[in-house]
Write a structure and sequence with these properties.
With about 1150 residues, the protein is α+β, with helices and mostly antiparallel strands. Helix 4 (about 105-135) packs parallel to helix 29, helix 28 (about 900-940) runs antiparallel to helix 34 and helix 30 packs antiparallel against helix 35. This is Phospholipid-transporting ATPase.
Length: about 1150
């Protein structure tokens, strides 16, 4: 693409005009002031003045910890949890005489749990460290004192260094582009790592530096850059270059950002401006907003409840201990003489019973510490990580076409997927493919294109008038021969060159010539096949260039100064080559909503070619060139109703005088380095884009993704509300809503819009205050009317859909109106927000999240959806055509919208159920164990004596009960994945938080207390008053402790077996293995010297195992303890079943009958709720 000689007009100027010399005025006063104080000495990094500035090195670290701060910082993270602080205090106090057990028995499990979590943090941080080392040690060529380029590592680069980067290499820092392998100093950059977009961006150097092409040219090169300080803004740069006594303004077009890649350019030369953590990519690498699931937040409250219970139990124990202690030496009578109340200590003194009770309170706080599950947090973290691995490896959410699996980018929100109340979705690229196809067009008032879109089919089906032609439209591709990506146009009147015979052939020629010239696409020729592919900035632009090619205007070459076409001449009917000199490109922006090019043709005519949104283009038309405006508007409306995206195409001829006068003003605006440069450029462009001649309009289709209607219908059946927030026109959005089943025929529409005659009249007069006042009143009235419709239809089966446009939304989101708008919206089944800005998307999401207090999920695919994704409780990014920025900012990433069905209804339901049951079971097993200590202490006159050996208690949460609950959290399923999808109403268990409601949590706590009572009282009353062994020996303290502990281990593990719905060999191994390990531990620990094993010395082998009573008593107590829960579940399943109970019951019957019938109605499933 580079030319062999320099020309007067350079290709770089097509993209920006800051290469021209600037006339510096007052607006440059920002340079040198606060925020614009950076000074870079180019090719002179050792300059004393620059050394004094002490800029950061190019070393980059993304790790959370360093070798120095890992231990203190990681410990701080662990002890932010109140439960861990409690256990730390207990461990410290356990070294005092107050402790009811040895210090090491409480310290060991705390160290194990904290150590495991810290090890996990260390492994994750080490992986980040390895990535940093790899990046910091990449090689780049830097200009040294010997006037040659030598290789060095990225981390050794300094501000001011001159570097050379080759094709397909990453930029090692933020660079100022000096020159490139192209003579004009342009280069192509891929920014996938920054914004996820795969299209190439064009960058260019200043004219003054572009001749620097070889090593010798840099011998005397010295310059000074003064620019903005490091900041995170990827889309602007303000600075100046002082070179050879002159100053030149710098813009973003000369900046090459770190971690972007050089493409389609052999090499570039650049100067390092920002290094390391000062680079724009590192300035943007902030942590995403911290999100916690509702279950995790409620879990914290339960911990506080347990702490309250702990304090209450400790208080009760110390209260009665104080009373009993006081009675031990009442009026000189020694009641419990064996405790020697006549020889008291500070911990037991009948004369100071209050002080003794206080110390007992401290002892009890440690003794009953097992009410707080020490391993809960680390177990949940482990389970969530394993759940995320299952999500990542789900083959049913793998998209083969793009080789993209589902990705859980965080494991904190797995269970939140099972509680989603509202989904807020983007449309383009999320519900649709974002793969545009040219389908129809309107030229000179004539509509062309006979294809039928999916939306038109849905529209016709809704109206009940599907014609045979429409039914056959899907088969038309066969007749056309080869299919062309981006082109789905069918019309025999203008295809195959027949447009030359049309009455308006000249207008048709100009129309497609505009499409072939008005773009920034780059042609890439396949050397083997000779076929031309286009690298375009958007799918729409690629579709226009392809359409022009297919209809006789093939864009095949772009040089520094021209665009060349193979054109079909309408007079001769032959293909000819025409070259157009490209003078300026007025780029598209969301504010301008249009794009223009200024070209000079071979006849020396100056032409402005323009395409843009109808909302701005019609007002730019010449008063004398509106012949086809009314009919074109009508065509655009019909195209929008068919779900198509439309653009208006126009042109005008320019005189030499007008062009030169405008160009001078435009270049002056372009060379400004003030903060409002963009607005100055837009104002200048606006002055030339006027008096346009209308040619027609284009219509491209963005097809729905596969499975979208079915997915939305299934999610609606699950009780999930779905909102679509899009930038499309209202007609397009409504018809897309019907096509994807978001809107239904039986649904009434509430439409809120400011497109009224009264508002339009006020806007024409330009009285902004009057427009605002009238608009606000209109929206208030429309919301009130909508509410009245909902009120009047209460009790009926009518459902409503709310549609609101962007202008109306800006008023509806105001402080005085947002509550009433939200009340209306949440009462509707579906909501569509049209013409919405990215900011409005985020504001609507925040309103729904805070206003309803329920879980919101946002899903989108583009950079404009990032705010919405981060604002929602759960952000799901689509890794689609618009790049990876949404996916990189999300909590979960999927390749297609339809995978959301499985993510929520299967993984969401399972994860919610597993985590809920896991937490409830954790509290149950700890309360069942902890309260046996309380009952024993009451039995022992609240003496503070523990019922169990120290190491029994230490290993309870770590070895004997932890693995089964982890298996539950990872593997349990109430129904299979197929039935989760088949019966979406099952999802409502999470939607209504049935499995983790306060009644259910308190029910499990009550079950734990009942279990502890049965274990203690049944055990003590059955063995204390009779012989335990053949030789007549009765039970002693050690045997009682072992028997009670055995009953606890058996009970909580069998309770797990009763709760599990889906057994695998892993569950069996962990449940029965935990019980077996208890016996193995007793044998091994009991074999150790009695000075170490104390009360456990040979207790199983010599005392318990030989006694049949130990085995029969254990079985009796365990069965008795499990019986209440078993009877409760039997009653509930039969008379008050939950949804999953009904499904399990019916499926079980169907399986037993071997009839294969497992169909259930929603009515069947709702019974008993």
């Amino acid at each position: 693409m580079s030319g062999s000689t320099r020309r007067g007009i350079h290709f770089s100027r097509l993209y920006s005009f800051s290469c021209f010399r600037s006339n510096f005025r007052d607006e440059h006063s920002q340079i040198g002031q606060k925020g614009y104080s950076r000074i870079v000495y180019c090719n002179d990094p050792d300059n004393p003045e620059q050394v004094m500035l002490r800029y950061r090195s190019n070393y980059v670290s993304t790790t959370k910890y360093t070798a120095v701060n890992f231990i203190p910082k990681s410990l701080f993270e662990q002890f932010r949890r109140v439960a861990n602080i409690y256990f730390l205090v207990v461990a410290c106090v356990s070294f005092s005489p107050l402790a009811p057990y040895t210090a090491y028995s409480i310290l060991a499990p705390l160290v194990a749990v904290i150590g495991a979590t810290m090890a996990k943090e260390a492994v994750e941080d080490w992986r980040r460290r390895k990535q940093d080392v790899e990046a910091n040690n990449r090689k780049v060529k830097v200009y040294d004192k010997n006037h040659t380029f030598k290789e060095t590592r990225w981390k050794k680069l300094r501000v001011g260094d001159l570097v050379k980067v080759y094709k397909d290499e990453y930029f090692p820092a933020d660079l100022l582009l000096l020159s490139s392998s192209y003579e004009d100093g342009i280069c192509y950059v891929e920014t996938t790592n920054l914004d996820g977009e795969t299209n190439l961006k064009v960058k260019h150097s200043l004219d003054i530096t572009s001749p620097l092409h070889d090593v010798n040219a840099f011998h005397q090169f010295k310059a000074v850059i003064k620019c903005e300080d490091p900041n995170e803004d990827l889309y602007s740069f303000i600075g100046t270059l002082s070179y050879e006594g002159q100053q030149y303004p710098l813009s973003l077009q000369q900046i090459l950002v770190r971690d972007s890649k050089l493409r389609n350019t052999e090499f570039i030369y650049g100067v390092v401006v920002f290094t390391g953590h000062d680079t724009k990519v590192m300035q943007n690498s902030t942590d995403p907003p911290s999100k916690r699931s509702k279950i995790e937040r409620r879990m914290d409250k339960i911990i506080y409840v347990l702490f309250s219970m702990l304090i209450l139990v400790a208080f009760v124990g110390s209260f009665f201990f104080g009373i009993n202690t006081k009675k031990d030496n009442e009026n000189g009578k020694l009641k419990r003489w064996y405790l020697r109340p006549d020889d008291p200590t500070i911990f037991y003194d009948p004369k100071r019973s209050e002080l003794a009770a206080f110390f007992h309170f401290l002892t009890a706080l440690m003794l009953y510490g097992y009410l707080i599950p020490i391993s809960l947090y680390v177990s949940i973290e482990l389970v969530k990580v394993l759940q995320s691995i299952f999500i990542n490896h789900d083959q049913d959410m793998y998209y083969e076409e793009t080789d993209k699996p589902a990705r859980a980018r965080t494991s904190n929100l797995n269970e939140e997927l099972g509680q989603v109340d509202t989904i807020l979705s983007d449309k383009t690229g999320t519900l649709t493919c974002n793969s545009m196809e040219f389908v129809k067009c309107s030229i000179a008032g004539v509509a062309y294109g006979r294809g039928v879109t999916e939306v038109e089919k849905a529209l016709a089906k809704r109206k009940g008038d599907i014609s045979d032609n429409m039914q056959r439209s899907g088969d038309d591709d066969v007749d056309l021969g080869r299919s062309v990506k981006g082109f789905n146009f069918k019309d025999e009147r203008i295809m195959s060159g027949r447009w030359v015979y049309e009455p308006q052939s000249e207008m048709i020629q100009k129309f497609f010539r505009v499409l072939a010239l008005c773009h920034t696409a780059i042609p890439e020729v396949n050397e083997e096949t000779g076929e031309i592919a286009y690298e375009a900035e958007s799918p729409d632009e690629a579709a226009f260039v392809i359409a022009a090619r297919e209809l006789g205007f093939e864009f095949f070459e772009r040089s520094q100064t021209s665009i060349s076409l193979h054109e079909l001449d309408h007079e001769s009917g032959r293909k000819i080559d025409r070259s157009y000199t490209l003078l300026h490109v007025l780029e598209f922006s969301s504010a301008r909503k249009r794009m223009s090019v200024i070209v000079r043709n071979v006849e020396n005519q100056l032409m402005l070619l323009c395409k843009g949104a109808d909302s701005v283009m019609f007002e730019k038309l010449s008063k004398d060139a509106r012949n086809y405006e009314a009919i074109t508007r009508d065509h655009i409306k019909k195209y929008s109703e068919a779900g198509l995206r439309t653009l208006v195409v126009a042109y005008r001829e320019l005189s030499e005088e007008e062009f030169k006068s405008w160009e001078e003003e435009f270049l002056k605006a372009q060379t400004s380095v003030s903060g409002d440069r963009d607005s100055l450029v837009d104002e200048a462009a606006d002055k030339i884009e006027k008096d346009l001649i209308l040619l027609g309009a284009t219509a491209v289709e963005d097809k729905l993704q596969k499975g979208v209607p079915e997915c939305i219908a299934k999610l609606a059946k699950a009780g999930i509300k779905i909102w679509v927030i899009t930038g499309d026109k209202m007609e397009t959005a409504i018809n897309i809503g019907y096509a994807c089943s978001l809107l239904r025929e039986d649904m009434k529409q509430i439409v809120i819009t400011l497109d009224s005659q009264e508002i339009n009249e006020l806007e024409k007069h330009g009285d902004k205050e009057a427009v605002s006042k009238a608009s606000s009143a209109s929206i208030t009235n429309q919301i009130r009317e909508g509410k009245s419709q909902l009120t009047s239809s209460k009790g009926s089966s009518i459902s409503f859909g709310l549609i609101i446009d962007g202008k109306s939304l800006s008023f509806a989101l105001s402080k005085d109106m947002e509550d009433s708008f939200l009340d209306l919206a949440i009462s509707c089944t579906s909501v569509i927000c049209c013409r919405s800005t990215p900011k409005q998307k985020a504001l609507v999401t925040r309103l729904v999240k805070k206003g309803t207090g329920k879980t919101t999920l946002a899903i989108g695919d583009g950079a404009n959806d990032v705010g919405m994704l981060q604002e929602a409780d759960i952000g799901v990014g689509i890794s689609g055509v618009e790049g990876m920025q949404a996916a990189m900012s999300s909590d979960f990433a999927i390749a297609q919208f339809r995978f959301l069905e499985r993510l929520l209804l299967v993984h969401g339901h399972w994860c919610y159920r597993r985590i809920s049951m896991m937490i409830c079971y954790f509290f149950y097993k700890n309360i069942a164990f902890g309260f046996t200590l309380f009952w024993f202490e009451a039995h022992a006159s609240f003496s503070g004596q523990s019922a169990y050996n120290d190491w029994y208690m230490s290993f309870y949460n770590v070895f004997f009960t932890s693995l089964p609950v982890i298996a539950l959290g990872v593997f349990d399923q109430d129904v299979s994945a197929r039935h989760c999808l088949k019966y979406p109403i099952l999802y409502q268990e999470g939607l209504h938080n049935i499995l983790f409601s306060w009644p259910r949590i308190l029910g499990w706590i009550f079950n734990g207390i009942i279990s502890s009572m049965i274990i203690f009282f049944f055990t003590t009353n059955s063995i204390l008053l009779q012989a335990f062994r053949k030789d007549g020996h009765v039970v002693d303290f050690e045997v009682l402790g072992v028997m009670m502990y055995t009953c606890v281990v058996w009970t909580v593990n069998c309770q797990m077996a009763l709760s599990i719905n889906y057994f695998t060999w892993i569950q069996h191994f962990f449940i029965w293995g935990s019980i077996a390990f208890w016996y193995a531990f007793l044998v091994m620990y009991g074999a150790v010297s009695p000075t170490v094993s104390t009360t456990a010395y040979r207790v199983l082998v010599e005392a318990c195992a030989p006694s049949p009573f130990y085995w029969f008593g254990t079985a009796l107590v365990v069965v008795s303890t499990l019986l209440p829960y078993f009877l409760y579940r039997a009653f509930q399943t039969e008379f008050r079943p939950m949804i999953h109970d009904v499904i399990q019951k019916r499926l079980g019957r169907a399986k037993m009958m071997d009839c294969g019938k497992d169909e259930l109605s929603d009515g069947d499933l709702l019974v008993g709720r």
